[in-house]
Amino acid sequence: MIDVKHLNKTYVMGDTVLHALKDVSLKVEEGEFVAIMGPSGSGKSTFMNILGCLDKPAEGSSYLLDGKEVADMDDDQLAEIRNRKIGFVFQTFNLIPRRTVLKQVMLPLQYTPGAKDIKERALKAIAHVGLEKRADHKPNELSGGQQQRVAIARAIVTDPVIIFGDEPTGNLDTRMSEEIMAIFQELHREGKTLIMVTHEEDIARHTQRIVRFRDGRIVSDEKVTEQIDARDVLATLPEEEHT
Amino acid sequence: MNITESIILALESIVANKTRAALTMLGIIIGVGAVICMLALASGAKESMMSSIQSMGTNNLTIMSGQSRNGGVRGGMGSMQSLTLSDVEALRKASAIGKLAPQVQTSAQVKYANNNTNTSIYGTTPEYADIRNYTVEKGRFIRDNDVKGIKKVAVIGPTTAETLFGEMTPVGKTISIKGIKFEVVGLLKSKGSSGFMNQDDIIIIPLTTAMRRLMGTKYLGNINVQATDMSKMNTAEAQINKILRKEHKIKNPEDDDFRIFNQNEIMEMANQTSQTFTLLLGGIACVSLLVGGIGVMNIMLVSVTERTKEIGIRKALGAKNSNIQSQFLIESLMLSIVGGIIGIIFGVGVSQIMSALSTFTASVSVWSILMSFGFSCMVGIFFGYYPAKKASQLDPIECLRYE
Predict the structure, then answer these.
(1) Is it the case that residue B1 has pLDDT exceeding 80?
(2) pLDDT for A66-81, tens place per residue?
(3) Does A94 contact B313 at a Cβ distance shorter than 8 Å?
């Protein structure tokens, strides 16, 4: 699914050259659920942006996504890849203000030329994250957890091959985080490939595999031995009435 | 994202920022409104000028005595007295001339009972009515008998009549001009003109009476000539030149002691003046439209900055640069289209009010509406292009980080 080889990325800031990623290589198979961890400045966000086709790696890098080389694509080709193959879930939800849930979720399909049944597909995605009753609400009428679920619905509506989470639980309390992780695990069981950046050890242990970054390099890559099931955690938490 | 959705999106964004959009559009509204009003005003002025010239009669030529040249001192037009009644008789033989009316003119104090006014007194012959398009409302015009008999009769213009007589019928009353008593025999029909060259504020008396009793002169002020046909105007002018030079024994045309005013020339001059006028007014109005366009650009730049994050989100979801560009371009186009439509309504409305309040009609042409609307759309595209381009080239990562 993802095959990154000798990935480099440098930033020039005035006189200093910041080497954000140094010769990173990583393979992720289809259906894997991977957590990327590391302290701030370790390069994990840069790595994520490149994987998500929002940023371009330095020359000489190779990035095969779903069998296609994307390292040297131009802006429009990358936009198309993002639209068709990638779903994003951000820490700050990144919903567009003043638009209803339905419109938020329809948006990616509106950028897909020739997309059909946009509304039906959006409603299906909304139902998938359990927000069918909130389709006409605007972001400011929803809780943080609900907003993140809208973002997930928006990420899956195009039926992407891979879903990226950039600290998707970073702004949420424990219960909401577990709810989000439950949805992620559900998507994983359905066969989706998921990669998420997190700095919370507990959240990372919901995944199958943890890749750790430090100073622009991968320092460890190990399987999660005792995977946490979000449903079990939710069962132990007291009920709340925000859903 | 198809065009309908883009337009809906743009309208949503305009509605979401009503005050800001309204202020931006105000520039376009005033610009488009000004273009329409100014052009309406200019064409209204032109029409009224033309009809005022037309109402003076058609196919007209006026012969005036020339400038006097006493050594180095040059008098004003008509200061030299050179035209006489024998000139008129000579001119009657010219083939291209249809009608002739010699004229003297003075202004004098006119009294009736306790009312008095200062007005233009024209001494002329019966043909004057035909040449100058005067018709009589009540009574009669000057007759040949009046001229031959040096009679003290007067035909009075409606404006003068109102000043002197108010609601009373002037026909049959006696007025005094420079202390000489005249009987009013006719009231002229209004020509509807006003302001400068008011053709309704006039008293017409027989030529002979004016020359001998009122002014004591042997010379004519000018000779009104009507060519037989519109196409004969230039022939008539040539014939007049030839005859008068012979009569006055002038060999060199530079020594002419008379001048001919051709109505065609006056019309042409008026036309040119009004064209300059139209260009000037239209130009000023276009500048205001341009300023409105800069306002649109300003707001679009603010809008791009304000929605940086949204641009980032859209790009992350797969919007191409061209999608973002067209979104902002359509938005600025919508601002100018909506502004343009309101501006048209505003401009037409103001033109109507102006015509209602002033003496001439401001006529709005379809052409000026289309032109100003097209221009405002162009302004929208032109000034929306840069902000839209800027928005489309933003880096998605930077945008997503933007707070």
Answers:
(1) no
(2) 888 998 899 999 999 9
(3) yes
Residue B164 tokens, joined = 């002197």
The average pLDDT across B191-218 equals 83
Domain limits for position B165: 81-256
Average pLDDT over residues B78-94: 82
CA atoms within 13 A on the CB side of A12: 3
Structure tokens at B396: 């998605």
Domain ranges of chain A: 2-236
- The answer to whether residue B57 is domain-embedded is no
With an 8 Å Cβ cutoff, is A74 touching chain B? no
* pLDDT at residue number B48: 80
Phi-psi region of B316 (alpha: psi -120 to 50; beta: other; left: phi over 0): alpha
How close B353 gets to chain A, by Cα (Å)? 42
B250 and B117 share a domain?
Answer: yes
Residue B64 lies in a domain: no
* Confidence check: pLDDT of A243 > 60: no
Q: What is the dihedral angle through the alpha carbons of B232, B238, B240, B243, rounded to the nearest 10 degrees?
A: -130
User: How many Cβ atoms sit within 10 Å of the Cβ of residue A143?
Assistant: 14
Query: Nearest CB to A54: which of B309, B314, B397?
Result: B397
For an interface test with B, which of A45, A82, A98, A154 has the most B Cβ atoms less than 10 Å from its Cβ? Answer: A82
Domain A2-236 has CATH 2.60.200.40: no
Determine, yes or no, domain membership for B60.
no
The CA-atom distances, in angstroms, between B338 and each of B314, B334, B365, B383 are: 26, 6, 20, 16
The secondary structure of residue B180, as a DSSP letter, is E
Residues of A in contact with B309 (CB under 8 A): 94
pLDDT for residue A132: 92
The better pLDDT of the pair A95, B274 is held by A95
Chain B neighbors of A82, CB-CB under 8 A:
315-318
Pairing of strands A16-28, A209-214: unpaired
Lowest mean per-residue pLDDT among B73-87, B120-134, B311-325: B73-87
| Residue given tokens 């809906």 in the structure block | B8
Between residues B207 and B133, which one has the greater pLDDT? Answer: B207
**Can you tell me the ipTM of this complex?**
0.93
The answer to whether the Cβ–Cβ distance between B318 and A84 falls below 8 Å is yes
